[in-house]
Design brief:
The protein contains 11 helices and 9 strands. By secondary structure, it is α/β, with parallel strands linked by helices.
Length: 280
């Protein structure tokens, strides 16, 4: 069997499980062969060895069971960086990049050393992306899951940020060792009954479940955030939200930060995505 024939057969197998069966097949075959997916096109007529064919088929079967591509290849691109990911952490989403962008914009506006916290860091993608582009900040990355922190640690090391990022095992802000200037969080906010089957089957429930109305973490985290932000200096907090949660999270933010400037920011698809809180 040639690579071309293997790809055609795999795409046919994936046609009912994926919206992009040809792309999925090409990415998985490239992973098996240790190639860039674009290199596959130049090798269409090469023979696929039996060992590689077996490994490729095993990945196709896992993809047919709706397992995310990122788990199958062990990596995901986020904010121009590559991250290690597996079943211990949520797969980074492009929608979250607006949170990183807004964080970096706020950081650049400050003319002083800053302490930043990423609450519910998961794979560490937010913490690493922010620290990579803001080398003068100190950053604490917190997660309740030791398994997730192990993945985050691998990404901190992958990007050479072990001197800038300190990982903390904890729930919320309670373990932060000092006041902070900027808090970032992409907390669990989904309604488990409404998420896609592949996400529900394979991604960690702890990183997804927002409770009956998706607001449990905001109810806990917003008042707690008000207690850890530095006094006497401009501070900010950025929270990712579900597209339907803007008014509710803004109301919760106003209750905890009655004198702050609160903005609702949209993602590239014009959906509500981030609540930004700023205090002078």
């Amino acid at each position: 069997m040639t690579l071309r024939e293997a790809l055609i057969e795999a795409a046919n197998q994936l046609s009912s499980a994926s919206l992009t069966p040809q792309l999925d097949a090409r990415v998985l075959l490239a992973h098996v062969l240790g190639l860039d997916s674009s290199q596959i096109l130049a090798r269409f007529n090469e023979h696929l060895e039996a060992e590689h064919a077996a490994a490729f088929q095993a990945l196709i079967e896992r993809r047919n069971a709706l397992e995310p591509i990122a788990y199958l290849i062990g990596a995901r691109e986020f904010y121009g960086l590559t991250f290690n990911v597996d079943q211990r952490v949520l797969v980074p989403r492009p929608d979250t990049e607006i949170l990183v962008e807004q964080a970096l914009t706020w950081i650049k506006q400050q003319n002083r050393p800053l302490v930043v916290a990423d609450i519910g860091t998961g794979s560490g993608c937010i913490a690493v992306a922010v620290a990579k582009h803001a080398p003068n900040i100190k950053l604490y990355a917190v997660d309740l899951s030791p398994a997730a922190l192990a993945v985050a640690q691998s990404n901190v090391e992958r990007h050479g940020l072990h001197q800038q990022i300190q990982l903390i095992h904890g729930d919320g802000v309670s373990q932060l060792p000092e006041p902070i200037d900027l808090l970032l969080s992409n907390p669990p906010y989904t309604l488990l009954d409404e998420i896609e089957p592949g996400v529900r089957l394979h991604e960690p429930t702890l990183a997804l479940d927002g409770g009956p109305d998706g607001l449990d973490c905001y109810r806990q985290l917003l008042p707690a955030t008000a207690t850890v932000l530095r006094q006497g200096q401009p501070t900010a907090a950025l929270f990712e939200i579900g597209a339907w949660q803007g008014p509710d999270v803004v109301a919760l933010a106003q209750a905890s930060f009655p004198h702050a400037t609160i903005q609702l920011l949209r993602d590239l698809a014009a959906r509500d995505r981030v609540v930004q809180i700023e205090q002078a």
